[in-house]
Protein 1
Amino acid sequence: MKKLITLTLLLFSSYYCFSQQTLLRYYNGKQRKHFYTTDFNEYGNGKNGWVLEGPACTVYTAEDRGRSIVPLFRYFNKQTGDHYYTLRYEEYGRGGNGYYLEGPACYINMYQAPGSVPLLKYFNPYTGDHFYTIDRHELGRGGFDGYQFKGVEGFVYPANPQR
């Protein structure tokens, strides 16, 4: 029985020890666009009109298909200035509909895992901006400032300010 409990605790703790990092959220008021990255050096505290809004959530640093941790692909549309994030590579592949693949932004859970929360996806057709949040009260079911709720993109963890 002791071995079973030890093994269970070991497996459970390894689930949480997988390398994680903070996904940062930026906003550019002039462009009316949002941008998400795990690399603080991309925009730092803000440059070229981008302002750091803070941590969006906590994500993984690598893929682990055995635990359904998969890439969240980042696409960019030069014409509209929009960044689009999706688990579904087949949506645009290497590029399509004006978007080109920049690569994985990070790695997230495909399915709900202990302690994880939904990553909610919104789109504003007036500004062409995709917006992602874990706070369902931030935009609700959509309608706020023109944003429309598009569904759950995957599952992440609440941001930890100490990360």
Protein 2
Amino acid sequence: MEPLFAVLGPLAVTGTDGTVVPLPPGRRRTLLAALLRGRNRWVDNDTLAAALWERTDYPSSISGSIKTYIHQLRKILPPGTDGEARLAGRGGAYRLTVADGELDADVFTALAEAGVAALGRGDPAEAALLEQRALALWRGDPEEDALDTVTVRHLDELRWTARYALADALIATGEPAEAIALARAMLTEDRLREPAWERLVVAQRAAGWQVDALASYEAARVLLLDTFGAEPGSRLREAYRALLAETADRPVPASGPRSAVAVADAPVRAHPAPAPHAAGPSGSRPSGPGVPASNGSGSGAPVSRVPGPGAPAVPSPVPAAPRRRPAGTDGRRVPAALLALVVAGVLVLAGGSATVAGRGLPQTGGVAGGAAAAPKILFGLGPDPVRARKSPLMQSGVGMVTTWYHKQGDLDRFEGWRADVIPQTYASGLAMHVIVGTWEDGESVDTRFGHACGQPYPLSDEFVPDMRRLAAAFAGPADGPPLYVSMFSGLQHLTCADNGYLDDPATTNYYLALKERYTELMRVMRAAAPNLRIALNWDGWNASHDDPENGAGRSMFQYFVEVMRASDFQSFGAFTEDGNAEHIAQMVGVLGEHGPVMVSHYGPHEDSLAVYRDDLHRTFPPDVLARLVADGLFAFSFKDPDLQRESPELMTLTSGIVQDYGQFPPVR
């Protein structure tokens, strides 16, 4: 049974009907986080008010406002156990009752510690099962609003301990390949974790990959010497000595490496392709929003795609896929035989031995050497540039990092990134992508079109200056990698009706004001960031049904067609828990009529491995992707790398897709 409250990742709660209810940013979520932080204790109104509002923004009736949000929470919370109220109140204070096993952080701690204990008493099979159950609960960084700082740090370190124990258990139960994948994932996250290097060396030795194990030890030794001026610790040196004793009298095999395994252990980085050039009398690139399109032939020939009347033509240069090569190696420290194997591994990679069919995707075309090139798109990764760049997927050829804007407080963080994260990202040839999702409760709003009802912040006086600050924080040179902005995430949910365009006059008036606001934002944000491209952001299921009577589903697009055509690209998220491949094809087909299309954030809502795997298998066969590119798809961003990290099979599949079809963003 899943824990009722989830704080290991985005805050979520299992509702009264047994389904998981995610809580988007807003005061209801903030209130639950504050109550969870003080769970099983009375939390007074002063503490709750400090969490809910800035001191200068306190409402006229603090207790009345808190009661309103408490009432909303009680609607979604399951009943308490043994007849006890789940969320109790008394004079000026509230208490959230959380029993044993109801908070995922507590369950994670118990499982992880039990796994370590099982390993210590000589039961690696039980240890592996317990640690896998523990790590499956980890959906992302712990929710700091719901946990104190010391607990967050303890949980993060316990996650490392759980992964070390899992790697040890996998080796002991005869699964060294899975341990290798786990160790590599850990090292991608933090290359200075010496225990992860130890597990990698031991697992490679257990798998019979002695040369790879030697290479891994040497890579760890060089890294530690260069970083700290110190040799590896005793445990890693002991693993190395055992490896040397095992290989001392063994001749070097005459054949080359199995499939560039040696290269896979070396640090790699993707290099952007040179700036493309479109055909023309002067040889200069035609003007346009700076996103690639395709003629659908797979030939890579430059074409111009005209998305619709009044829309700018979009140039269609297709840069070569990002190349991968091993990072510089100190030949004085690496045996010559090992260097020869590394070079052989590079040649294997360059020869393209890893085919699409080899990744488990259907190979329908039987393409031979010299045939049409595979379709290429820009792959992105979230949920922010700091975490994304630690993922193994970045080494496969991801060309864009995605982050989210939810509230005004995010601007300080973005402006802090301006000193290092943002310029470093652009200098690496990567595009940046910001999704603006202002999740808050709808309210009555006055507009020049009349009374409206919806989220107040997007239509407020503060929103345009805030978006100018956002654009300025992420601004890059006009001739550098683009900044993509997907505005108003899931815009059909911004109104109180949460339904169609014509649901009632208050809904229609809100959307009229929102379109006017978006037109203003296009002008203001483009002026603040020369490399900015902007789009409206839809939910991926929007094209899967139609309700012309109230303007829901596909009918909604007609009411936004003029601002869609004025946009630089089109954008939608794909995240339903029951499958997204069909939605992706439908949305690309519809939105592609108005401009190039980006999947802004992909990831099944329930983080289902089966759904994720099925979506990738159905979306990324070469012929399917070629049709999507022909319809306008130019970019596809993964929500976050957490699910891939916990499933080596999914990481391999996703990395292969990115490597086969990925390209870096075009520059002007």
Protein 3
Amino acid sequence: MPDSTDDPIRPSDLETLLATPDFGDSAISPDIDTIAARLPSLAEVVGVTVAGPVIMNAVGVHGSPTPLGGPLAIGAEQISLRLNPSRLSSALQTDPAALVPPTLRLFDSSGNTAHATYLTENSDRLAFESLSLSTSVAAVHGSDPAPVPPLPGPEYIQAALHDRHDGDQVGLFDSILLDGGTSRLRLLAQGHGSRGIRVDPSRVITSLEHAALLGMTVTVAAAAPGCMQMRQDRLDGAREHRGQMVLASGTSRVMVNFNHVEQCWVTRSPGVWGPTAAIEFYDRRSRCCLVVTHTGPVPRATAEAWDHLTCDLAS
């Protein structure tokens, strides 16, 4: 699983799709907020978040996406997204083509896929088709994509910042959504802000395998630019081979290419049971691509087991 972002001159995902002849009828929209609000209406889908060396997928129904500063609505019953629309450029809706089912893709500001929603036989096709009626324009294949008008990002961010919970778990996730976590990593490396301990990725692999062996409940958050897919559930399995690791949790899978993970840190943020550890993964461009922690009112035994595991990892 190579990290396609390592090639800075490759065409963007959006450019590639629009240049593909006969890819299928498509509609493109810059109205991220409206599109995101309608995701739950699609019923059962496969939600895939592409976060550099991390790919997370889940089968289920989208919950209502939450914005920066909003509550952490995470569970095992739904596909949970946390969005920063200022870092997303457009949505592309495509009909079935080349063995690919009907798909809705959210693109980051560089035109690369942040999140893709694939319809299944249990999806609401009428709801999918209605997305393009009021928010989209027809996409022109075989030509350069037209510039997408910028979203009102600064105003959106400032409104969210007013209610941010600096230092707690909401602040942790939002600091990553704001700029990919690059500022957060810089503060960690300088010993400022959130206190953290850098750990060897090979030890992280061992810790996650042990967590799966114990069937721990964890929160996993894959962080693409502007889009974070989150899930909290029992960790059913974890297997690594030659730097490629798969984490299994219910109907969700997280694939991590440790060959492209540059740094791992153990940090702590205030949670329900006090300071709660998180394992943060950063790629070669200093962007946070994955966070593993636990959130919300988990049983005390779960919190204690996670604390014991992460203390061993950071020692």
